[in-house]
Amino acid sequence: MTLTELQYIVVVAQERHFGRAAERAFVTQPALSLAIKKLEDELGTMIFERRRSRIELTPLGEQIVHQAQRVLEEAEHIKLIAAQGKDQLNGLLRFGVIATVGPYILPDLIPILYKRAPAMPFEIEESLTANLTAMLKNGKLDVIMVALPFEELGIHTQALYDEPFKAVVPVGHRWEHKKQIDARELDGEKVLLLHAGHCFRQQVLSACPELSRSDTEGLQGNSLETIRQMVASGLGVTVLPCSALTKKYANKRLIAIDLAKPVPGRRIGLAWRRGFTRPQVIDVIRDAIHGLKMPGLSMVPGEHRSG
Predict the structure, then answer these.
(1) Per-residue pLDDT at 305 exceeds 60
(2) I need a labelling partner for 81 at 20 to 30 A (CA). Which of 13, 169, 196, 233 fits?
């Protein structure tokens, strides 16, 4: 068993295709297939089920690939230890961000990070939490920014900030002159929410249980910006995180209203694999976010990490 063979099975598990995996591994497909067959013979078990259109992991293969990923990460850690003094902020960082955070945080965050770590280019992935989680676990992403709690085996997390939610109504709405409303009052309104699958939708429903409804009822959107424009058109009201309501996103046709205590909100944090070998990256991202000074955000102090 070699590290190269372990790399091969991890890449095949990610691509679910021998041809694409061979291209990623810079090896011919026959050589890759032969190496994996040799490893399976050595272990005495099938790692992959070869199907005509797709490769699937066997139940035992899933465990083997998961352990192989950990072994490869530990091998990288050995290199890091051996190269003491090496700059952890040098090299590509694959960074994932949930879609309800990315548009509002990244435009201010990335320039700060480029100044603090100029030799660390970013590859950004913006998606749903479920997609980011899968990419983090299989090594396609290094660090992700998600809503907490985020409890996954082998994953560390660190809280960054808390942000409250606000109600948003169109100009002319009966609440337009209110300074504050109770979240329970939303129950009588046509509230526009994101489609099922977005964690922010569930956060709003959890904070405002009176809004619970089927996933197919009423108008829904794929992004907060779509929802914002629908509300501006008079199609209903909504709830948005305060990071989406700063001056740069001001709309003369919309009015943001504070929600009464206990104010609904969410906690955003970072998540990374336990074997991630660049801990200084986490510190730099955290410090950069804490330096944003974005109105409404309450930064979580300290360096507590869980996972």
Answers:
(1) no
(2) 13
Judged against a pLDDT cut of 90, whether residue 189 lies above it is answered with: no
Joined tokens for residue 183: 């979240």
Please choose, from the candidates 236, 149, 125, 270, the residue with its C-alpha nearest in 3D space to the C-alpha of residue 199. Answer: 149
Exposed / middle / buried, residue 259 (Cβ in 10 Å: 0-12, 13-18, 19+): buried
Query: Is 0.70 surpassed by the pTM of this model?
Result: yes
Given a contact cutoff of 8 angstroms between Cβ atoms, the answer to whether 55 and 48 are in contact is yes
CB 268 within 8 Å of CB 101: yes
56 — phi, psi (to 5°)?
-120, 145
Q: Write the pLDDT tens digit of every residue in 92-103.
A: 899 999 999 999
- 80, 145, 160, 279 from 157: Cα distances, Å: 22, 9, 10, 12
Return the structure tokens found at 181.
């409303």
